[in-house]
Amino acid sequence: MTKQSVMVSEPQTAGVNNMMEIVAKSSSLFSSMEMNTDNGYNFAIKKQFLKKLETSVVGVDKGTTRVNAWVDSMRASSPPRLNSTMDNDQSWMMQHPSALNMFDEIINASKGKQIVMFLDYDGTLSPIVADPDRAFMSESMRTAVRDVARYFPTAIVSGRSRDKVYSFVQLAELYYAGSHGMDIKGPAKGPRNNKTNKPVLFQPANDFLPLIDEVTRILIEKVQSTPGALVENNKFCVSVHFRCVEEKRWNDLAELVRSVIKEYPELRMSQGRKVFEIRPTIKWDKGKALEFLLESLGYANSTNVFPIYIGDDLTDEDAFKVLRERDQGFGILVSKFPKNTNASYSLREPAEVKDFLCRLVEWKRYSRRMISRV
């Protein structure tokens, strides 16, 4: 039997443990939710509310046609890559120019507004690696993120469990939205630009925890027959990584995962970069998390906020779409290739993300010096 790699969330660090509770219950966006705390941290969202969040789409169709579609998409990066020709590449770059080349344009659009930063982790702050448990960010990237957070409210929005992504980033002053935004927690003391100055905790999928644990155990057992497959419990979702699986086995793996999930109509299956994501069927994603965090910071209906979201994955498209619909701020896609996206700008790789963050900090410091001289 093939030895199976299994990933579980690491214990919560002291920095996160010291974070406290929740934003105001009077939040207009979430006023329909009944939010109770358990030992000061965990939310008990009533089943009636969860039913309202459930979608009518399970996300996994029966039959081999659906599986074959999965396999076709597995061959490409996420979001879907466009057919690449010189003309197409040039056209795409005109529509999604480099955020570094257009930095002045972005800054001009933000004048008079509060910038709020949202950052994906894997593929954005750290490189995509064969072993997801070793997706470490560099010290220089950590410094860049720390510096950004000194001037702008900053959140990490990831499909990883919140504890896991915190163990990678190790910056207690940030907001963290793990499990694709289903596990949100902020610093005990909010940043100076937080209008509410109230600690944040939000977990809309608490009732699904036993189900997620059950499916994780089943998948761990099932994928042992697939060398290279790796199951990761991300608390409110499960990831099945196939980056190290031979392509000839992808079809069988997709069918295997589908066969498990079809027995759980409360869950749905989607795909990221060489990973299957199994999540609760609630209307919650990274876009909803972005809206929740903006409201938590006191910018729900503000015209003076400028969100910038940087991400590389298909799941980040929900946040890009929200920004377009709000007509506020910009989405920045991290990709070396033209892809279908709702982002306005692009960066090629994490190294360029770091450069963008550093330029943002340099601009803010310069602006403050100029103001102090007046």
UniProtKB/TrEMBL annotation:
<dbReference type="GO" id="GO:0004805">
    <property type="term" value="F:trehalose-phosphatase activity"/>
</dbReference>
<dbReference type="InterPro" id="IPR044651">
    <property type="entry name" value="OTSB-like"/>
</dbReference>
<dbReference type="InterPro" id="IPR003337">
    <property type="entry name" value="Trehalose_PPase"/>
</dbReference>
<comment type="function">
    <text>Removes the phosphate from trehalose 6-phosphate to produce free trehalose.</text>
</comment>
<dbReference type="InterPro" id="IPR023214">
    <property type="entry name" value="HAD_sf"/>
</dbReference>
<comment type="similarity">
    <text>Belongs to the trehalose phosphatase family.</text>
</comment>
<dbReference type="InterPro" id="IPR006379">
    <property type="entry name" value="HAD-SF_hydro_IIB"/>
</dbReference>
<dbReference type="Pfam" id="PF02358">
    <property type="entry name" value="Trehalose_PPase"/>
</dbReference>
<protein>
    <recommendedName>
        <fullName>Trehalose 6-phosphate phosphatase</fullName>
        <ecNumber>3.1.3.12</ecNumber>
    </recommendedName>
</protein>
<dbReference type="GO" id="GO:0005992">
    <property type="term" value="P:trehalose biosynthetic process"/>
</dbReference>
<keyword id="KW-0378">Hydrolase</keyword>
<dbReference type="InterPro" id="IPR036412">
    <property type="entry name" value="HAD-like_sf"/>
</dbReference>
<comment type="pathway">
    <text>Glycan biosynthesis; trehalose biosynthesis.</text>
</comment>
